[in-house]
Structure prediction request, 667 residues.
Amino acid sequence: MLRLITLALVGAVLIAAPLFLEPHSIGVLTTALIAALFAMAFNLLSGRAGMLSFGHAAYFAIGGFAVIHTMQAVESGAIWLPTPLVPLMGGVAGLIGGLGAGFFATRRSGVYFSMVTLALAEMLHALAPNLGGFFGGEVGLTSMRMPWLAFDYGSENQVYFTVLAWTVFGIALLYAYNQTLFGRLTVGLRESERRISFLGYNAHHTKIIVFGVSAMFSGIAGGLLAFATESMNYSMLGMGMSASVVLHTFVGGSTVFLGPALGALIFALFGSLVSDLTKNWLLYQGILFVLIMMFMGDGLAMLWIRIVNECRSRNWDALRQRVLLLIPGLLITVGAITILEVTSKILDQQQYATSVARMNAWPPVSVFGVSWDPTSALTWLLPLVAILVGIGFVYLILARKMQQRTGTIIMSREPAR
Amino acid sequence: MTQAAIELAGLKKRFGDNEIIRGVDLAVREHERHALIGPNGAGKSTLFHLISGLYTPSAGDILLNGRSIGGLPPHLITRRGLSRSFQITTIFPRLSVQENLRIAAMSKHGRRYALFSLARNAKEVNRDTDQLMELVRLSHVRDKFAGDLTYSEQRALEIGMAMGPGADVILLDEPMAGMSREETHYMIDLIRNVTVGKTLLVVEHDMEVVFSLCDRISVLVYGELIATGRPDDIRSNARVQEAYLGEVVA
Prediction:
């Protein structure tokens, strides 16, 4: 019930978004939705089937290029296809590419599988600039969205709603896939491939199909990007794209169905918001990723589920602890950001070095609207103290939790047999 | 004489220079419960891996109901009607008992690529799943993760998994390993029940199990069969006593 309400709320916010967001933000949200669908497609392979692909950008980009070519063909009148259906061609291309690559990659398991997927994607990435006909060389390819019925696809909102519809449709299909007999078998693959074989299933064929389906949805996501940006470039095939989908999936949580979508949304929005504030946003994104992996290895969706369960079971102690942890968390965050920002500003060769040379002094820099003098000890000590105090608090809170936990274990221990 | 369910003819397996299985001839009759015993390192597990397709034979042949299966991959051997359990429990730990057995039961109905059938609507599969669950007496833990079951429950599930594809020939690799006396008795009873009307080949160390469960026994020593016969014959066989039983039973 709560799940349905949450979903309905998220859906309502997404549908109403154009009412309260400016076009630029709608563009950001569009890319976030595409990243969400991509992460969900990726997680079918990684989370459900237990095959960690390091080269999923390949199927994303193949879908994107297929769609750009389709759009060009529609534009020139060579073929007829309603514009909102164009992303479908990304799915077709992704499926074909995925079945082909999957045939080779799924012959191996574990790390070897990951390496093969990485190698296949990098191979394509290296070849792409030379295959100008299909990938458009260094400059890439562009096209125009053609009008369809009453829609001219000229506004951010029309694009946004098309992408939203495809994303929801794609995620719904992935959900349905999980409910099928084959979807159940897919999870078995993750748990024990040997058992699958000895039950009479051809594990290799099964894995190829899973790979193909995952690549198909990745291709749709790539197609949506081509559709939304009206362009495609071979750099989409690169490691960055393959890495970011892994990142999104694990931040969100690969064990919860919508976890990857959550991770993608959060990271896309985080990137967009923070990159407006500081050029160190990638550093913060990296730190965030490391922290989440260290302290909530199963992702943010799992954290959410835990909190909901604690509310349900009226576990006030646990909830109070979480709220308490926010205080030192804030201290550490503010302290760390201050040190990082001041450091990065005085290390900035172009701007800061010239002002140092001109004024023959180290001028103060502004962080959080406060002016920090780099030559003053206070500038460094204050944030450092904040961090240390924060860590001390965390330690105290966790130590108490430890104590309580061992206490309960002793009390609830069953009599020895 | 009825046709043999499993027939091994001059079966050999080498790993490099090591010959582990050195020419084994054996006929397991249809519907019999047959035990394979022998000291550690005799090659019992290797022989099981050969029959079930995990290893390919270096020489010789394996017949299942008269047809050669030597060198076939495991999934094809299972589809021909032979399935097995493992000494190291091979189940799906992060799936419920019901999901475990459902994947096993799907195979029996050939629903190997059922991309468009919802699991909850697959009536025959779900019915078979419930039957399997009752057969191995795990209905009370239906929704528990397999990984959270007790060890003996996991071993029972392991047998359920082997029964799932509906094969007529069942290979069980040390089903009682690591069990208490009580649990062993429970398991003997369970195995006897699930293998009614089937052919069973079982590797087991516990002599009490072997003698009470099986119709015939084969003794494997250093990759060679030194005797095959009824329990009493095996007990009184001098070579067997010398090689193996002497220290245990005498």
Chain A has two domains: 17-306, 317-409.
